[in-house]
Structures are given as C-alpha cells and as structure tokens.
Amino acid sequence: MAAAASLRAVRAEAAEEAVRLRELTERIRARVPGLVPDVEVVGDPGRRLPGIVTFSCLYVDGETVLHELDRAGFSVSSGSSCTSSTLTPSHVLRAMGVLSEGNVRVSLPPGTREEDVERFLSVLPEVVAGVREKLGAPASPSPPRRRAGPKPW
Fold first, then answer.
1. Segment Disordered: which positions (predicted)?
2. What does the pLDDT look like over 72-113, one tens digit per residue?
3. Which of 7, 9, 15, 82 is catalytic?
4. Residues of the chain below pLDDT 70
C-alpha cells in the first residue's frame, strides 16, 4: 500500500513538473522569434513534449551556435532528437520542410529555473548575431518572420 501511495505522489509531482516545463518552453517559443531575426520555431505548440523547443536560424551553422551557447553555460542540441546519434542532417526536419543546418533544440531538464530561461533568452540573440558576423552573413538580416502557425512535428 505504501508503494502505491508513493507511486501516486511521484506521478503527481511529475505531472506538475511537466506543466511547469511546458510553460517555460512556451516562453522560449513565444520570445525567440522577437529576439532573433530570421528564426522559425518548429513544431506544433500543443502537441509536443514538455520541455523541448526547436527553432531554425537562417545564416548560421547550428553546430557553431551550439558551441557558443556551451561557452555561455547552456547545453543544447542540433537537429531532431530522432537523429541525435548521427552526424548527418536530420531527415525528420527535412521531411517537415524545415531548415536543418541552423537548427537548435533546447531540452529543459526537470528543475530548470525561470532565471535559467531568462538568461538563455538574453544570451541567444548575442550568440546568433556573433555567429552570423563570423560567417559573413548579411549585416542587417530582415526583421523576424511572422507565420500563421508553427509547422507540426
């Protein structure tokens, strides 16, 4: 009986954490397009795992963005999680019609603080701008693109 009660408590806690992570992820989804020019948030806003957000940036190499974010203290990935163990561009993202070379996937682990998300959002624009400058991208990219809705996973 005690094990069943413990399991119920753990499941309730996990459900609460999933709601919290979904809210933090939604904050990233909502703010990144306004902070970084030429970025597209990927995936359905409702039908997705809590704590995971993916976006594609024009004029950057995803791996370079990953390294720069790592230097700033953030561990992110590139490509879809379906191909995370390969070095080839994501066939999943290509099938969705999504830019795969400038792709960044943020996975928020349990316990991620709001302050961590806010710091990420403050660092990301500088990182992307710096990578674009190093790669010789256009000096003033177009303003953020507005879409009718995100592409489904």
1. 132-153
2. 999 999 865 444 444 454 455 454 444 557 899 999 999 999
3. 82
4. 79-100, 139-153
- The sign of the dihedral angle between the CA atoms of 127, 74, 67, 47 is negative
CA distance 25 to 145: 20
- Of the candidates 116, 153, 101, the one whose C-alpha atom is nearest the C-alpha of residue 21 is 116
Instruction: Sketch out the chain's domains with CATH numbers.
Output: 2-134 (3.90.1150.10)
Does residue 82 have an active-site annotation?
yes
Burial class (CB in 10 A: 0-12, 13-18, 19+), 114: exposed
Query: What is the residue type of 7?
Result: L
- Rounded-to-integer distance, Cα 124 and Cα 81, Å: 21
- Does the pTM of the predicted model rise above 0.85? no
Extract the tokens encoding 53. 């957000």
